[in-house]
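User: Sequence in, structure out. Go.
Assistant: Echoing your sequence, followed by the structure tokens.
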Amino acid sequence: MKEISKKIKTILAIETSCDDTSIALVECSGSLKNSGADLKFEILENIVSSQIAIHRPFGGVVPNLAKREHIKNLPKVFRQIFKSNVKGQMSKVDYIAITIGPGLEPALWTGINFAEELSKKIKLPLIGINHMEGHLYSNWLPIRISDKRQVTSNKHIEFHAIALIVSGGHTILLNMKSINKWEKLGETLDDAAGEAFDKVAKMLKLPYPGGPEISKLALKGNPKAINFPRPMLNTPNPAKAKARGAGYEFSFSGLKTSVLYYLRDNPKIEKADVAASFQEAAIDVLNKKTARAAKQYEAKSILLCGGVSANKLLRERLQNTAKELKINFYVPDFKYSVDNAAMIAAAAYINLLQKNKEHLKIEAQGNLSI
């Protein structure tokens, strides 16, 4: 068995979990010793081809349209990554990593089939990666890259850490004991935070994707204009009332419904006030539950990641919370908050270090739980 932590490994990563086609080429080095403090990721290429214009007329992602666009985009992005010297540069690649879920099934399988065909053609091991692990490990990617060849050493993230993963499909709170050991404290019982943002945006007749549009409109509104509910902010889940970590589940369906009824009963209300008040309520829940967990588990760090981590108000609120608690705060660069293949490469390398073996089958990664 090779000791992979002592060598630089080049990973070609592919991400097609939803409506972004992304391929990255990343040089990875370091080990998991000292909580991964010496991990380094040099991102040689990280291309994201967006499908927003395709899905915008439908107000959301249409799975079969996403599949069609991935089929078109994957070969194009692959050629962009390697430009004219595909054969020469592919000879330097050690592994291919592919997102295998969670996500839209037609989109995921398009990427998986492309990766499997590529793996067989050039005889490279294929690593299946959980999409949410990719978001989690995006916190170990460089914070700033002024040019594609720059390597940035990552900060030493101190543990325990509380990690909040917030995306269109998931809202998860983790207690991280180390870089590769964690327990799930809670998750959403219905709508994810990002999903609620998108649905409220539809109610306000804002274009897709709704999250950024809500945030933009909220800047013009009064966040205290409407006192929308903060679901499950103070009440533990009765089914888990005695469990360690009880009270950290989330629910955003009721908040979304409250906005719906308010708009029905107040047709002349300023949309900006609705957007600002809704955003304030959602972020208040995310921030306060994260803060409560950080206090309870005496965390040394708070980590934020996932697509909704691009929300500037959420970043500011959690950063202020960390300052008040006198602990560290980490969030990926904006370009790595959204779905991208660089985070899949980081997760693949950390999985390799954790498993300490050269080849992981897709099936072995399919049931990962966060």
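User: And one key feature?
Assistant: The domain at 4-141+337-365 is CATH 3.30.420.40 (Nucleotidyltransferase; domain 5).
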